[in-house]
Design goal:
The complex is a heterotrimer of chains A (about 400), B (about 350) and C (about 250). With about 400 residues, chain A is mainly alpha-helical. Chain A has 16 helices and eight strands. A two-stranded antiparallel ribbon of chain A has the order 1-2. Chain A has a two-stranded antiparallel sheet with strand order 3-8. The C terminus of chain A is likely disordered. With about 350 residues, chain B is mainly alpha-helical. Chain B has one domain: ABC transporter involved in vitamin B12 uptake, BtuC. In chain B, a hairpin with a 5-residue loop joins strand 1 and strand 2. Chain C has about 250 residues and is of the alpha/beta class. Chain C has a domain of about 160 residues: Rossmann fold (3-Layer(aba) Sandwich). Chain C is globular and about 55 Å long. Chain C starts with a strand and ends with a helix. Classes of the chains: A mainly alpha (about 400), B mainly alpha (about 350), C alpha/beta (about 250). Chains in contact: A-B, A-C. At the A-B interface, helix 6, helix 11 and helix 15 of A face helix 6, helix 12 and helix 15 of B.
């Protein structure tokens, strides 16, 4: 289907089902029940899942295929957000031109930074991208925000004010981001018994975009171009002596992933018309690295899983507090209950980053292929067990793809 | 003239911190071939050693002084630090006052231990892994260390004042013949600079004049050959990692009085220290020190009113700008060797 | 006609003269071996031919076009393929992919952004790659990761990748270094077969006399960065100067 083989089509369908049914899947607990706080089917949270998924898919095209580890991709996300908000300010709240501009501007910006950074490789490349991103952050935070020339509105963040021109904004158009009149905040709530599900226009827009860019990333992975990018990672010397110029290949991958980041930034602004410099900070770049690695570098679905995983647990963990823990471990004797809660306490609530850091280290050490590799190992073990019971002789490990 | 000197002096304290962190980073690059993203966290742990010691020294017990009343008429409760009770009020108060310099003694064994555990427990397993993996795992470690410190000490900066005798400023201008008040300089900055120079000197002479240092230098130049000589390089490198950790830690201990330590100070310094290492030349110890001071001073010049009015915000981006220019024109940095960390 | 002309090429590294006034002509459709003791400058010369090093003086003409100052990929596009001392292949990719890449490179040039195509749809390229794998006797290994091949198979694959581009000149840098005798003989047979079946010029740098004398039609002996003598294998064998400079030492 759509020029994909069976396996990839299956993958695309899984992603489509997961994103389209997310309002159900993420809200498994009835409203008002004790577990309702672990529901994640709120529009803004679901939007974040999908937007960071797009960001990570793009990052993976660069890092997963070529092996170039950029520590500055948040800069492109930030540039995308700023461009989108400027479109809101100058043209109108219609998100289409805004998102188009954020992709274009992020593409141009990444072309510039990529052209310079890719003159070096290895750790030098990582540090160059880091330096560029930190510089962009400083530029956005203070340099480009002075009374004479205010491009970013500094600490406050760029937003739309009543006296902005908005030359194309129609009289009847909604006064917040919309797609041809359909506001991104529009939400239809469906109540089924005790359950309640939110269907949000903005989320579904992001979900459709995710499916499109996921499809494009499959095409890139399976194309001759994608194969060349893997060749860059594998052996640049051989590539060079095979008549291929590796620079434009890596630069193209860099720009594509920059455009994905810009798209994510534009969508972020489309969901909430505000752009701040902190989106460009290197910790934000680090986050997308975490997502990609945790999910599975160089795999198709890994980055989406990683982004969803991190954003989901960030949300859940910050909600767990000592009271919740006490209620969970109430069945234990009092002293033991307190001890268990005491041990878990540092890892929950505000301690989520600690958990994430440890988890990330464990993945890098023991599971370099991330969640995807973990899943495959489990599957293989399961298969092996099954085949062992079926036929004792055929119990061989299948090579992990 | 005096204005230029003042800016140079102003750049020395940050420059010292950059130089010390970059020195440790380079030692680890050069010896273990590992890119350590957790090095900033070591700097931060050092600073929190000073915080911890200060808290320990201020541990008090409460007594009720019947002879005095508080404003409600109740007997006044008096907090007396244990050290004052043990050593007498005067000596005790002096010890508390000098808690930051004393923390050096406290931090050295802790940092050596932290470095040892880190190297044996984690870094060792990453010698043969790609640099990207090393960056990633130490990045994770940095997050973990930072969050642990945040858990115990909170998110807010904690004041670590210098001893009274070393706080305040001196008029350096008079000493070198300028007008009075031309160069007023905080004493602790001088102390920090002197301390940094001392540490750098100690590390260099250690590498230069001891057999241990000679082997390490040889190992940095050509690990395989030295290994073939039957010398156990690995153990020495473990010790080198400990030393690098201690250098970063001590830089942190003494940095507290300049800027109250917080849990993310390590990350803030790490990014800049990496830039420093790259500018100095990956694998070159003198390059790291030189670039550290140069960039510190440059940053200070870029922070003058003249510079910031000419180009707003130049102080924020100057280091990155220099790094980008250096990397593109002199890819090996100011004093770098060929081919280090290129793959 | 000489397809490769090296004229007055010199190269120094600091105080060390690696090459001094090297003149060398490789005739079209011949097998030309360059031999010499360690440190004679063989690898330096090779690197000057493929764009890795820039000689200080002199010229290198391939098919009457200068190759000096060009990047390795440009030189490859002119029709020179290189086989390395240790096989340089794409270890993480499959054998089939390894074979596809040079064919794409030949068809599409140094860069083309065919990001929306699927490889399976590129029927002509796939067929060529399959044919080449067949020729190299590696069709059964097409889905294996190249890194997991044996040393001899890696060498075959690398040679196959070079041949798939139909190069006019094939440069081999000690192709049998570190190989077991059986693998060496297999490689010699493979090269003989290539020489017989194709219009191709082969320049080979080799240490192993057995390989040189079984393949070469002309031999240049390099000593201390300068050509000592150039002649047919029979004459080289009997040349006392060569014996002194090289064979005596090697034997």
């Amino acid at each position: 289907m759509l020029g994909l083989n069976k396996k990839d089509t299956g993958l695309l369908i899984i992603v489509a089902i997961l994103t389209l049914l997310a309002p159900f899947i993420l809200n498994p607990f009835p409203e008002g029940s004790a577990m309702a706080q672990f529901n994640a089917g709120y529009p803004d949270l679901m939007q974040r899942f999908v937007i960071f998924g797009i960001f990570a898919i793009g990052f993976n095209i660069l890092f997963g295929l070529t092996g170039y580890l950029s520590f500055g991709h948040a800069a492109f996300l930030g540039v995308g957000s700023y461009s989108a908000v400027w479109m809101f300010k100058l043209l109108s709240y219609n998100i289409l031109p805004a998102i188009a501009l954020s992709v274009v501007v992020a593409g141009l910006f990444s072309l510039l930074i990529g052209f310079v950074s890719l003159r070096r490789s290895g750790i030098y490349f990582s540090i160059l991208t880091l330096a560029f991103a930190q510089m962009s952050f400083a530029l956005a935070y203070s340099v480009l925000s002075n009374p004479k020339f205010n491009l970013t509105n500094g600490e406050t963040g760029l937003q739309v004010y009543a006296d902005d021109p908005q030359i194309l904004q129609g009289a009847n158009a909604p006064d917040l981001p919309h797609l041809f009149g359909l506001p991104m905040r529009a939400t239809y709530t469906m109540d089924v018994g005790a359950w309640s599900f939110d269907f949000n226009a903005g989320y579904y827009l992001c979900a459709v975009v995710l499916m499109v860019v996921f499809y494009l990333s499959i095409r890139i992975f399976r194309s001759p171009f994608g194969m060349m990018l893997r060749a860059v990672k594998s052996n640049q010397q051989r590539m060079n002596y095979t008549g291929l110029n590796s620079k434009p290949y890596t630069l193209a991958a860099f720009v594509i992933s920059g455009m994905y980041a810009g798209l994510a930034g534009g969508l972020m602004a489309a969901m909430d018309p505000l752009a701040g410099a902190e989106r460009m900070q290197w910790t934000a770049s680090g986050e997308v690295v975490l997502m990609t690695i945790l999910g599975g570098t160089g795999t198709l679905i890994g980055p989406v899983l990683g982004a969803g995983f991190i954003k989901y647990f960030e949300n859940i963990f910050s909600k767990i507090n000592d009271n919740v823990l006490h209620s969970w471990f109430a069945f234990l004797p009092d002293g033991l209950e307190d001890a268990v809660v005491f041990v878990i306490h540092p890892f929950i609530g505000k301690g989520w980053h600690l958990t994430l850091g440890i988890l990330f280290m464990l993945v890098v050490i023991y599971l370099p292929g991330g969640l995807v590799e973990g899943g495959q190992r489990l599957l293989n073990r399961f298969k092996r067990k099954k085949s062992n019971t079926d036929d004792a002789t055929s119990g061989k490990t299948e090579p992990a793809e | 003239m005096d204005a230029i000197l003042l800016q140079i002096l102003n750049g020395l304290d940050k420059g010292s911190a950059y130089a010390l962190i970059a020195l440790g980073l380079t030692l680890i690059f050069g010896t273990l071939g590992v890119v350590n993203f957790a090095h900033g966290a070591l700097f931060m742990i050092g600073a929190f050693c000073a915080v911890t010691l200060q808290k320990l020294l201020n541990l008090s017990f409460e007594t009720v002084d019947e002879s005095q009343k508080d404003f409600l008429g109740n007997p006044l409760k008096v907090e007396t630090p244990y050290v004052e009770a043990w050593f007498g009020p005067e000596v005790g108060a002096t010890i508390i006052d000098w808690s930051v310099p004393l923390a050096i003694l406290f931090a050295i064994p802790i940092m050596l231990l932290v470095g040892y555990v880190m190297e044996r427990g984690l870094i060792k397993h990453f010698y043969k892994r790609p640099h990207a993996d090393q960056i990633l795992v130490t990045f994770g470690l940095a997050i973990v260390l930072q969050e642990i410190v945040k858990y115990f000490f909170g998110a807010n900066p904690i004041q670590t004042p210098p001893p009274d005798a070393l706080s305040g400023s001196v008029d350096l201008g008079i000493m070198v013949g300028f007008d009075p008040n031309a160069i007023i300089y905080p004493i602790w900055r001088l102390v920090y600079f002197g301390f940094a120079v001392g540490i750098i000197g100690a590390v260099f002479s250690f590498l230069q004049f001891t057999t241990f240092g000679m082997v390490v230098r040889a190992g940095m130049a050509d690990r395989e050959t030295v290994g073939l000589l039957g010398i156990n390089i690995d153990r020495r490198f473990t010790i080198m990692f400990g030393i690098a950790a201690a250098v970063a830690g001590l830089a942190g201990v003494m940095y507290g009085p300049l800027n109250p330590p917080n849990y993310h100070m390590g990350m803030d310094f790490l990014v800049l220290s990496f830039v420093v290492v790259v500018v100095g030349g990956m694998g070159s110890l003198p390059g790291a020190v030189l670039a550290g001071f140069l960039l510190g001073i440059l940053e200070s010049f870029a922070s003058t009113t003249w510079a910031t009015t000419t180009i707003p915000g130049i102080n924020q981006i100057i280091i990155y700008l220099v790094a980008i220019i250096v990397l593109l024109t002199r890819p090996r940095g100011l004093m770098g060797r060929k081919g280090v960390m290129e793959e | 006609m000489a397809i490769l002309r090296v004229k007055d090429v010199s190269k120094r590294f600091g105080g060390l003269k690696a090459l001094t006034d090297v003149n060398l002509n490789v005739e079209e459709n011949s097998v030309h071996a360059i031999i010499g003791p360690n440190g004679a400058g063989k690898s330096t010369l090779l690197n000057c031919l493929v764009g890795k090093l820039m000689p200080d003086t002199g010229s290198v003409l391939f098919n009457n076009n200068s190759v000096l100052g060009l990047e390795p990929f440009q030189i490859n596009q002119m029709g020179i393929s290189r086989v390395f001392q240790t096989p340089e292949i794409f270890g993480e990719l499959t054998v089939m992919e390894n074979m596809l890449i040079p064919i794409f490179a030949m068809r599409d040039g140094a860069f083309r952004m065919h990001a929306y195509e699927t490889i399976a749809n590129e029927k002509a390229v796939v067929e060529q790659a399959e044919a080449m794998l067949e020729e190299m006797n590696m069709a059964d290994k097409r889905e294996m990761h190249a890194a997991s091949l044996s040393r001899g198979d890696k060498r075959r694959l690398e040679i196959g990748m070079c041949l798939s581009q139909n190069p006019r000149l094939l440069l081999l840098d000690e192709p049998t270094a570190g190989m077991a005798r059986a693998d060496t003989n297999n490689t010699i047979d493979l090269l003989k077969q290539i020489k017989d079946e194709r219009d191709i010029t082969i320049a080979i740098i080799e240490h192993d006399m057995h390989v040189v004398f079984s393949l070469a039609e002309r031999i240049t002996v390099l000593a201390q960065g300068t050509p000592l003598v150039e002649d047919t294998p029979e004459n080289i064998r009997g040349n006392p100067k060569v014996r002194e400079a090289y064979l005596g030492e090697a034997a």
